[in-house]
Design a protein that fits this description.
Helices cover about 55% and strands about 5% of the residues. The chain is α/β, with parallel strands linked by helices. Strand 8, helix 22 and strand 9 form a beta-alpha-beta unit. The protein is elongated, with a radius of gyration of 36 Å. Keywords: Membrane, Transmembrane, Transmembrane helix.
Length: about 700
């Protein structure tokens, strides 16, 4: 999902997929409904005011029509999601019942959103963002239980543990909303989210091919095996073409009515070909185009799946790692769906309230044996743009989906397989194109590499481990970027103390003697190299000349007699490299301004400042620290970098002290009888400057 909704809009993919922030293709925003007409005093969106007569009939008719359209968009996708969720081979014989469970879960979500959401036109369904984690749980449970455990026990264990995971997720979302912690969801790196969404894409492709062929397709190996059989390839062609057709329609027409019509055209064309060709339903089933006739799953059969005596509870703690990842992903995707709705409507929404709504929806869904869900951004906005500001739309979706649950027929036995597969392949194509290809233009090269590495890791290792690997790589990438940020800079600065003209002229002549450094941010181990390099290059010390013992002195006895030696620079950088200004005076004071430093770790303190302190002490240079926080000061003192006397409340007070010391030193040098006018090895040029200053007085 992308945080860049402020710059671009969501793709038409989201008209089927709840992961509605996967694409950002240009789209005009329609604000025909003035926001103030939709807002109540509490900031929530209100339903249309009651109208009488023909206006009321027209309003209800319009709401029913758009409720029907939303049902056409959601129901086929739910069958596809059932195949994703229960992709393990152990679930094959239970798919009629499990498919109805997924649809029933969507009914529960829609009921909760219709009752609780501040948006009366909201659509909330089972969401694919959390579905992959639940699929990983169900597959892990079946693999862990092995072949010795009856299939019924595997199915029961899976759906009950998944329900507990969903309800627990909902509790976390409610707590986050109540404590106003919705912003925490943004801590998951965007490239990792992108890699995960690309994985959803390829998983939808697996599920689409599985629907087309009736085979178990849940990894790259099984997908390749499908293409080894010509008949299986033939069965997949309509699904792939149908998915591509829906993608083209969604990108060309920004209207869900057209998309729903395109969806319904596919089975109509199929049955028309059967009619013209004289093909019976049994022939179509024998050819693999339609599922074999099966007895429909009744409500009592759905209830029989929840036999708590069959549950293997030892599998519950094994899913904790996957559950943690699901919490972050669902919270993140839900917040971004809310952000997308807010952007498109132009109305400020309460993120924490909406996240609480999503949370309660998942709590109830999980307790009733359902699965994770959230807002469907595209269908919510589609309904809003239709000016159908009514909860009747949600009620129509509830009735339509619940009718499928209660229907005494197995829908899969009468509808072509590729019809459901096309919706999944549509999602798969758009997700993978958007994140694996088009995202290159929206990210830095390293972020794009993190996305691909996350995608590969999730496919090769496992979902939760792959996500952790992606987060780890993203952290390393962040550190590489953070290390490059400037945390220290040399700036010319003088104190604000009042000085006489003579004092100011003396300080101007000795401005190189005080090196002022401004530090910022969090100083950690990665900052040490930068701090050492910049400070050492800006601090000048007296240079040792070849053939002369000790440092170059400034008295006449120490003056070089060879004129060529006068061209040798008398100063060098603290690290021994040549000074950029050979005529500069040696540094006597270093002021470290920590005003903008938020924190420092022990590694930076010892590997940067302790080394600098020792180097400067060797050359008689005094280091003072200004504007340090108590926590920063504590780290420096505890690591024996310096003493309490070296800290000053502000950079101005530290600079004033250093300037006063320089002035006192200069005055002492000029007033001491019988001694050279320069102390500590200052050059002849500097002596003449002092004499000139004195004569000016």
């Amino acid at each position: 999902r992308s945080m860049e909704r402020s710059n671009s809009q969501t793709s038409r993919l989201s008209q089927l997929s709840v992961v509605s922030i996967t694409s950002e293709k240009p789209r005009e925003t329609n604000f025909e409904n003035p926001p103030h007409e939709l807002l109540q005093n509490n900031g929530k969106v209100s339903s249309d005011p009651p109208k009488g007569g023909p206006q009321n009939v027209a309003r209800i008719t319009n709401a029913v029509m758009y409720g029907t359209i939303n049902s056409i968009l959601t129901i086929p996708t739910m069958y596809g999601y059932a195949v994703i969720l229960f992709s393990h081979k152990d679930f094959v014989d239970f798919m009629p019942a499990l498919s109805k469970l997924v649809i029933f879960s969507s009914v529960v979500h829609q009921v909760m959103f219709t009752l609780m959401s501040s948006l009366p036109f909201s659509i909330g369904q089972v969401q694919d963002a959390g579905l992959i984690f639940l699929s990983a749980m169900s597959t892990s449970i079946c693999d862990s239980l092995g072949n010795d455990v009856p299939l019924e026990a595997k199915v029961t264990t899976s759906i009950i543990i998944i329900g507990i995971a969903t309800a627990s997720l909902g509790v976390c979302l409610v707590v986050m909303g109540k404590l106003k912690l919705a912003a925490l969801a943004s801590y998951l790196p965007m490239p990792v989210i992108g890699g995960y969404l690309a994985f959803i894409g390829i998983f939808c492709l697996y599920a689409g091919l599985a629907l087309c062929t009736g085979l178990v397709v849940n990894d790259m190996e099984s997908m390749i095996s499908v293409f080894g059989n010509a008949h299986n390839v033939l069965l997949c062609v309509p699904g792939v073409l149908g998915g591509a057709f829906l993608l083209v329609v969604s990108q060309r027409y920004d209207n869900s009515l057209i998309l729903s019509a395109a969806i319904m055209i596919m089975p109509i064309v199929f049955f028309f070909i059967m009619l013209v060709g004289g093909i019976s339903m049994d022939d179509a089933r024998d050819g693999g185009w339609i599922d074999p006739a099966k007895d429909p799953a009744t409500v009592s059969e759905l209830l029989d799946l929840f036999d708590f005596n069959e549950v293997h509870w030892e599998q519950l703690p094994k899913q904790f790692g996957t559950w943690i990842g699901m919490v972050f992903i669902v919270a993140f995707s839900s917040c971004l769906d809310i952000a997308a709705i807010e952007l498109d409507m132009g109305i400020k929404l309460d993120f924490n309230h909406e996240l609480t709504t999503v949370g309660w929806s998942n709590v109830v869904s999980g307790l009733l044996g359902g699965y994770t869900g959230s807002y469907i951004f595209s269908q919510t906005i589609f309904t809003y743009r239709s000016k159908t500001n009514s909860r009747i739309v949600g009620v129509c979706v509830i009735i339509s989906e619940f009718a499928i649950v209660l229907a005494p027929v197995s829908v899969m036995s009468y509808v072509p397989r590729f019809f459901f597969a096309a919706t999944l392949i549509f999602i798969a194509i758009d997700l993978m194109i958007e994140w694996l290809i088009l995202s290159f233009k929206k990210m830095s090269l390293r972020e794009y590499a993190v996305l691909w590495m996350t995608f590969v890791a999730v496919n090769i290792v496992a979902l939760d481990e792959g996500m952790l690997i992606g987060v780890g790589i993203a952290i390393v990438n962040f550190l590489l970027d953070y290390i490059r940020l400037p945390v220290v800079s040399r700036k010319p600065r003088a104190s604000g103390a009042t000085r006489t003209l003579l004092e100011r002229r003396v300080l101007d002549q000795k401005q190189d003697a005080i090196a002022y450094f401004e530090l910022s941010g969090f100083l950690f181990f990665g900052s040490s190299v930068q701090i050492l390099d910049i400070v050492q290059k800006a601090v000048y010390v007296r240079r040792k000349l070849p053939g002369i013992a000790g440092y170059v002195e400034a008295d006449c006895m120490g003056m070089p007699l060879d004129p060529n030696e006068l061209r040798i620079p008398l100063v060098e950088c603290l690290d021994g490299t040549p000074a950029t200004d050979p005529a500069a005076a040696p540094t006597e004071y270093v002021v470290m301004d920590f005003t903008n430093v938020a924190a420092i770790d022990a590694t930076a303190a010892r590997s940067a400042f302790l080394i600098l302190q020792k180097y400067c002490n060797n050359h008689g240079i005094t280091i003072v620290y200004a504007g340090t926080l108590l926590s920063v000061k504590s780290v420096l003192v505890k690591n024996k970098i310096t003493s309490e006397e070296s800290f000053y409340s502000s950079a101005d007070s530290a600079l004033e002290l250093c300037e006063s010391q320089l002035l006192a030193s200069a005055a002492n040098a000029l007033s001491t009888p019988g001694r050279s006018s320069i102390r500590h090895g200052n050059g002849i040029r500097e002596l003449l400057q002092y004499v000139a200053l004195e004569s000016d007085d």
